[in-house]
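Final report, section 2: Outcomes. Of the targets proposed, Glycoside hydrolase family 5 protein is the one most frequently requested by collaborating groups, and we therefore present its record in full.
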Amino acid sequence: MKKISYLLLGFVALLLSCSKDDSGDIPSSAPSDLKITSEIIGTSTDKPNGNGSGMVKFKATATNATTYQIQVDGKTQTMPNGELTYTFTTAGTNTYNVTVTAYNNGKNTKTTTSVSVYVIVGEYATNIIKAMGPGFNLGNTFENGINATSIASIKSIIDLYVGAGMKHIRIPVSWAQSVSGSTLANTSTGRVDYTHSRFLELKAAIDYALSKNLYVVINTHHEHWLKDNYDGSAAYDTKFSNIWTDIANYFKNYSNKLIFEVLNEPEGALGQWGTNVLPTNTQAITYTRKVNLVGYNAIRATGGANTTRVIMVSPNGQGNQGMIDEVYPNKSSLPGLGADKYLAIQVHTYDPWAFCGQTGSDSAYPGASSIAAAINKVAAHAALIEIPINYGEFGVGRTSADRNTSVVHEYYRTIKTTTLANNMSFTVWDDRGWFGLIYSADKISYTFSSNNILTKMMAP
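The predicted structure is given below as tokens.
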């Protein structure tokens, strides 16, 4: 009986051993038939390697694969569901070898392909807006012709401001809106006349400012044909798109120191205080977003350096700082849906108008803390939607009252210090009139105005 028991125990042990060994020998199927495809974003007949964004969508498929890894540009990354969009950042057209490995239960197979990608590298808007620092407006010049557009006078102004420590210039420009009896763009089609004498003077001003190492902002300024009458129709969209397409194409190869501002002070049908269409009107907000998007899309579509050129959009209510969170409450409301790192928002402030307006009074000054609080509120919202801010216009004007006062100086200085502390840039308004900061007897050679505003504002 003992022998039989020992034999039975040995037989059971043998069975268990065989069962264990057999389970270890069950083969796992290795991945097979691995394929990888690449889609370069922004390709076209004339841009076979992409539009300069550097974005490529990779997709891998294989039989029996459970996971995928990709080696690209010296990096190894997982591919969730076999897909990955990768952004190349080396400037120019470069060819990269890409290897994908498919895995299943410890076994793998791999394949390699190559992709040639065109990349334009530009600094993100966050960096550029900060680098712009203090700046000034070349007001009442190319947008309405009150001041001369001759390059001789403009050079003098630029030199004066550069000497004062300014790092950028904003040049307001009217295109399909008449200036001195003519337009830079066809009033029916929006096509820009590159041979117009005023356009050539504008180009000369831009080129000179860039030669002085300034950032340069150009925009579509008054354009009341659009702002006062916009109804969302294709007629307005096409004309406005044509203007920006032609502007962007002409300056396509300019450096990223040139910045495009889609539309100065959306107002009228886009929403304006004291009218039947308030900025808070839902339709006005929708129209404002749409107009900004039309210009934005037209610029980006031209490719070249415009793929990563900084574009600014503005809220309505004449660009009022208080409307930023209404017009752009979240990332998805922005052009590019919050994914465009080369987008910025420009806001303006002449608040309160009872103090800032040309008929205003120093008695209406609300104090430095109130001025700073409004800017800090904009900064808080900008941080929420991750967008940099340029204060593109602000100032105190007077038709007759004295501007060389302590509260006026404090107003300008407060905007300077508060914007810079929030990594914003500021562009003080100077129209050489009610809001003037410089003076010239001959309108050619300029000096600081006796109101001391520029000196006080730029002082450390």
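The longest strand covers residues 92-104.
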